[in-house]
Specification:
The protein has about 200 residues and is mostly helical. It has helices at about 1-15, 25-30, 40-65, 70-80, 80-85, 90-125, 125-185, and strands at about 185-190, 190-195. It folds into 2 domains: about 1-50, no CATH class; about 70-185. The chain contains 7 helices and 2 strands; from the N terminus they run H-H-H-H-H-H-H-E-E. It has a two-stranded antiparallel ribbon.
Length: about 200
């Protein structure tokens, strides 16, 4: 308790209180000129305070409606494009989803084809057929591996691009909420109802 009282006394003593006239105080002396923020008079300070209050009112709404980067990335890991769909980026989500389905389906097709050729290779009795089926099985298997690699690259890109998509969504949400707040005539805040003309 003594420490708090001591700090309050030191703070009070450090305030410059130059009286202009007996019983009055110089507001410029109390409100030190702050060139960094442009507070060179009480009006600028009040305007900055008003701007801060407006931004805080918008921030509370934005904080409730913004989307999480981590949640959207997890969505994209589980189902490609889901994170993009969540942010309203439907076209990109559809393209990435379609590309991944195409790559995964093609990889599966070539893998099955390689297994068919391998079964034929095991059952073949002529040397020419054995060689051809072996070559075909290896070729299809390599193609399947390349397509799986491409699928992994597209999947990784989808997850990483979800971060940017979420960032764009949150930025656009901020500007939308700010415009709605500034253009609204009546707003309800924690301090009460405000009417703007």
């Amino acid at each position: 308790m003594k420490k708090i009282l001591f700090i309050i006394i030191l703070f009070a003593l450090s305030l410059p209180l130059h009286a202009k006239e007996p019983g009055g105080f110089d507001s410029d002396a109390i409100l030190q000129k702050n060139i960094k923020y442009g507070w060179d008079n009480a009006t600028n300070w009040e305007n900055s305070r008003k701007d801060l209050q407006e931004n805080m009112a918008v921030f509370k709404q934005w904080d409730n409606k913004k989307q999480s980067h981590l949640t959207n990335c997890l969505k994209s890991m589980i189902a490609p494009g889901w994170g993009h769909f969540s942010t309203g980026n439907y076209l990109k989500g559809e393209i990435l989803l379609g590309l991944q389905v195409l790559l995964a389906g093609s990889a599966y097709y070539f893998y099955n084809q390689s297994q068919d050729y391998y079964d034929k290779y095991k059952n073949a009795h002529q040397i020419d057929e054995i060689n051809q089926y072996y070559i075909d099985a290896n070729s299809s298997y390599r193609t399947s591996g390349i397509l799986v690699g491409l699928w992994i690259i597209v999947w990784g890109y989808t997850v990483l691009d979800t971060i940017q998509s979420t960032e764009n969504y949150n930025r656009n949400l901020w500007f939308t909420l700010y415009d709605e707040y500034m253009n609204g005539k009546i707003s309800v805040t924690a301090q009460g109802i405000q009417i703007r003309f």
